[in-house]
Amino acid sequence: MFLGRHAHALDAKGRLAVPARFRDALAEGVVLTRGIDRCLSLYPMAAWLPLAEKVAALPISDPDARNFRRLVFAEATDLTLDGQGRILVPPELRAYAGLEREALVVGVHTHLEVWSPEAWAAVAARLDADGGAIAEKLGELI
What we know:
Elements: E1 5-9, E2 15-17, E3 30-34, E4 40-44, H1 45-56, H2 63-73, E5 77-79, E6 86-88, H3 91-97, E7 102-107, E8 112-115, H4 117-138
Antiparallel strand pairs: 1-7, 2-6, 3-4, 3-5, 4-8, 7-8
């Protein structure tokens, strides 16, 4: 299970250190792809494979489904952690998420999200302002 928020630096080559507490869960490989909210999503293979199957099963006759498949798969890359627990974030994914020198690695239960500090600050501000209303709205589903 992935929980918490962890600040990490990207090195000059675009490598990001994965928090040490998560490395064992990611040892079998990971998939890094675009997240929906201008962040990156980092999935362990055990979480990626069922998600990928669901996305691949969407009807190709539906334009939204085709576009969602493109969003998820077109820039996805499978990676392994290096000996120091780092992943190489491809330049196009760094640009998409606005990652330069710093990144926040955020645990969201089944996977991790990678955010620029500025983008995360905006999300955190919205959560602070709207958290109660969001909880109330979704409370019936839990």
